[in-house]
Design a protein that fits this description.
The chain contains no helices and 25 strands.
């Protein structure tokens, strides 16, 4: 039986900590980052070319701007505007200027063009991370706190739910969501089964299924909109980190992984293309 995955070949290159997958319909390209490698990657689906840009510090994600060219990037020191054409980073704001050992980790934009982003300590060892909303007006609001590792913001297709992970606790939270505002959080899914790992990056499909990358679990798992396990797809690396749907029909899935600490795994740090049998949704863009 054919495997449900294949490796996107990059001349043997592997990411130390692949993360932050993002589909650019504008460029027909998949972006993702190498946090520990201080790099941004871009795969062009039209010709298969891969570009890699060095960054001056850890970078967790990029999101396209809706009404302007360029990207917003989440770096260790804060939110920045990124102009790749001229390789220019312009500071936007720092969510935690008094906490230099924290960094931005994972983010998504909502339909109104706000960015929802989490912070975490570099060592992932203290519950000093928080969850923020960067408004389209460039205001910053703290939504939640007490995270050692924040991950995987995602929105249900109907826009009624915001999902967010506390990775080290194995918890997927759900917040009622309306008009750019999140209500009180509740535990939606608790991942505590032996061998499953911990919830990392997430995305939703067009039917409302929640796809979760499982760090330490060598798999991605789809949960139904009701939070029930639907299916698993095994992958040949233990530290699976992030997921995005891509392509003109949004039926191509790309999944990142990490090599740090798993140098004995030949496929650790690879970018995988996965046959999920599902279709995704277009990502939202930042309106600021």
């Amino acid at each position: 039986m054919a495997e449900a995955w294949k490796i996107v070949e990059r001349g043997g290159m592997r990411d130390r900590l692949g993360e932050g997958t993002y589909w650019s319909a504008r460029e027909q390209a998949v972006y993702w980052v190498d946090i520990s490698g201080h790099a941004l990657n871009r795969l062009s689906l039209s010709d298969g070319n891969i570009a890699r840009w060095h960054m001056p510090e850890r970078i967790g994600w990029v999101i396209e701007r809706r009404d302007q060219p360029g990207l917003v990037a989440g770096l260790q020191s804060g939110f920045k505007l990124l102009d790749l054409a001229n390789m220019k980073l312009t500071p936007l704001l720092s969510p935690e200027p008094g906490m230099p050992d924290n960094r931005l980790n994972d983010a998504k934009a909502d339909a109104a063009g706000n960015i929802w982003a989490g912070t975490m300590p570099v060592g992932a060892d203290q519950p000093v991370g928080s969850f923020y909303r960067l408004g389209a007006d460039r205001s910053l609001t703290k939504i939640d706190s007490g995270y050692a590792v924040t991950n995987g913001p995602a929105f249900s297709p109907d826009g009624k739910w915001l999902y967010h992970n506390s990775t080290t606790e194995g918890l997927i939270y759900r917040y009622p969501f309306a008009d750019g505002e999140a209500g009180p959080r509740s535990v939606f899914i608790r991942i505590d089964q032996p061998g499953w790992g911990n919830p990392d990056g997430m995305t939703v499909d067009s039917e409302g299924g929640l796809w979760v990358a499982l760090w330490g679990g060598s798999r991605i798992t789809r949960f139904t909109p009701e939070g029930k396990v639907d299916r698993h797809i095994a992958l040949p690396a233990s530290q699976i980190t992030n997921i995005t749907f891509a392509g003109p029909k949004l039926d191509r899935m790309f999944v990142t992984s990490a090599r740090d600490g798993k140098e004995d795994e030949p496929h650790a740090g690879a970018l995988f293309e996965v046959d999920s049998g599902a279709t995704g949704l277009l990502p939202n863009l930042y309106a600021g």
